[in-house]
Amino acid sequence: MADDATSNPVPGTGRVRARALRGATTVDQDTVEQVTERTQTLLKAMLERNGVSHDDIVSVLFTATDDVRSMFPAAAARGVGFGDVPLLCARELDIQGSQPLCIRVMMHIESTRERSELHHVYHHGARGLRDDLPE
Q1: I need a labelling partner for 97 at 20 to 30 A (CA). Which of 2, 64, 76, 84 fits?
Q2: For this structure, is 69 an active site residue?
Q3: Is 17 marked active-site?
Q4: What residues contact 77, with CB distance under 8 A and at least 6 apart?
Q5: Catalytic option among 19, 102, 113, 122
Q6: Which of 3.30.1330.40, 3.40.50.150, 3.40.1190.20, 2.40.30.10 would CATH assign to domain 17-127?
Q7: Model's pTM, two decimal places?
Q8: Annotated catalytic residue, options 19, 38, 92, 102
């Protein structure tokens, strides 16, 4: 029986671990079309930038500011193949001065990468939310 350090490894890359990818985007207007397009574009970029396959996704948590009301970001995710992934939407804290019209994502994945190797993705008005992260 394999020990925890070697169970379920990806060949040649090391131990598989739970990791979280972060991302955020904004919409110019709260419309079904724009929430759909921006959410789907963000999710695709998060996967592509980190070499994540669909089977690596464990779950996705979405938050949105109170001014995003036209649709659930999770509904947009289902439109690009996330229908079999556990998805949850929640409201962002209403903090004075926070980024308006913002959708945030925390994607839980299985990966052999170290945290420092993951690339978080911030689009549109959300780019300034985490200027401490490398591009």
Answers
A1: 76
A2: no
A3: no
A4: 39, 40, 43, 60, 62, 85, 87
A5: 122
A6: 3.30.1330.40
A7: 0.85
A8: 92
